[in-house]
Amino acid sequence: MKKKDYLKMAGAVALTAAIAVSGTWAFLNKITETKTNTFTSSKDISTELVEENFDEEIAENYIPGQVIAKDPVMKNDAKENEGLPIYVGVKLEYIDNNGKHISRNEFIENYAEIMNNGEEGFNNLWKEFGTYNDGSEFYVFKNVVQPGASSDPIFTDIKVITGIKEVIKTEYSSKTLYRIDKDENGNDKEPEIIDKTDSTNSSRVLYEKIGDKYVPIEGDAYTLPKFEIKVTGYAVQGNDEVSQEEAIDELVKLAEATSIKR
Fold it and tell me: What's the pTM value of the predicted model, to 2 decimals?
């Protein structure tokens, strides 16, 4: 991890003095020798993003209305009394079923609510410092994190909305699929191409056209959608030589390096 260097190298210094002699100006001058001072350090900051209660298997087999533990924290991995304290931030990216970045509002409306200890929203020890064109957001933990300690989680759970809409399974996404409804006499209507983006107006039994025949596909073509919250962590040194304002400014710059601010 790249550290901000607050040390200034010593350089050449020119010394001049002036005296008045017989009404004219004369200058005594001297240039000191150059001293090269090399500074090295064994100090470093070490941090990791931890989600202690997240269970990937549960997340990959979720059901509507389910509450899934997801509790990102930033841990200062330095040993106590050895490493430096740090300020930390996280960038949150919201990804839909098609792998597209969306806003938090779109994510909440279509996929899941973000919960903190049973209530909707974020831990108030985290403050938002940036919203970007791809819908991602950047948050900074308000307190310095000492060696061996961790931040509070920015949130604790994801609650899948009960109205989440099913989508076409990947294996059928590139095929033209049809529905065949019945008329009032129980006869088949003309096959109708389905709108794959809307599962609410489509029959559970779908067909694909093979030659001149419409053949029902095997199994269910629908599935619950995939969605993601990506969490990326950032850290900068938080010792006495760095003010909180300077640290936050540096964290924001790190986040903006990979995002376009609105």
Answer: 0.74
**Could you give phi then psi for residue 158, rounded to 5 degrees?**
-120, 130
Per-residue pLDDT tens digits for 155-205: 999 999 999 988 888 888 888 988 888 888 889 899 988 887 776 666 678
Give me the DSSP letters along the chain: -------------EEEEEEEETTEEEEEEEEPPP------------EEEEETT--HHHHTT--TT-EEE--EEEEE-SPTTTS--EEEEEEEEEE-TTS-EE-HHHHHHHTEEEEETTEES--TTEEEEEEBTTS-EEEEESS-B-TT-BPPPS--EEEE-TTPPPEE-GGGTTS-EEE--B-TTS-B---EE--TT-GGGS-SS-EEEETTEEEEPSS--EEPPP-EEEEEEEEEE-STTS-HHHHHHHHHHHHHTTS-B-
